[in-house]
Design goal:
5 helices, globular, 205 residues, eight-stranded mixed β-sheet, single chain, Rossmann fold
């Protein structure tokens, strides 16, 4: 499979990259700092910016699926890059995209008509990051793409240990955290199994 990964130097994206290369997929990444990634067999490193449409078109050409593990980093890069990504996918005929979002954009259990970040379930003091991820969800939901958004709750750095729970559209009840390793494992599992197309998926221990 030809896999295009955004956010490949990040906490979750780097772990997804490792798994994809381990299983001998052909992987292309678009990064601003190529020196952060050592050469590896099966990996094509494209230097560029996700906000530059030409860079995205070049890097995504020939891909079967796109994985975006881009963070918000106190910017609007996430929401600004999504229309560019959608246009590139349509131009190249790519249907499948998996993104890493946040549990804040899942439905609230106390009031399913609002999002978690709008409810008392969320402990976050700021909603800026959630609103960025919400913009991505709204754009993907209006597209004709086969999308899945993986929505982890509190995301400490850590290896995969298994035993996590998932639930479509909601955070698993009493979920408190999920490691970067297990989040990456589930992203990769969804890449292979395609079990949650058109869904937001909450993940937590």
């Amino acid at each position: 499979m030809n896999v295009f990964i955004l956010g490949a130097t990040g906490r979750v994206g780097s772990k997804v990259l490792t798994q994809a290369l381990r299983d001998h997929h052909r992987v292309t990444v678009l990064v601003r700092s190529p020196e952060k990634l050592p050469f590896q067999k099966g990996l094509a490193i494209i230097e560029g910016n996700v906000l530059n449409e030409e860079d995205v078109l070049k890097a995504s050409e020939g891909s079967d699926v796109i994985i975006s593990a881009l963070g918000t980093d106190k910017t609007t890069t996430l929401s600004e890059s999504t229309p560019i990504l959608i246009r590139a996918m349509k131009k190249h005929g790519i249907k499948r995209i998996i993104t890493v979002g946040t549990a804040g954009i899942l439905n609230s259990r106390t009031d399913p008509s609002i999002y978690r970040f709008e409810s008392s379930e969320s402990k976050r003091k700021t909603t800026r990051a959630a609103r960025e991820h919400l913009a991505v969800y709204e754009m993907l939901n209006k597209s004709e793409l086969d999308w899945t958004i993986i929505c982890p709750t509190y995301l400490p750095e850590g290896e995969a240990r298994g035993g996590y729970r998932i639930e479509e559209e909601y955070l698993p009840e009493n979920g408190r955290e999920i490691s970067t390793g297990d989040t990456a494992n589930f992203v990769y599992q969804e890449l292979i199994e395609k079990n949650h197309i058109g869904k937001r998926v909450g993940i937590a221990y």
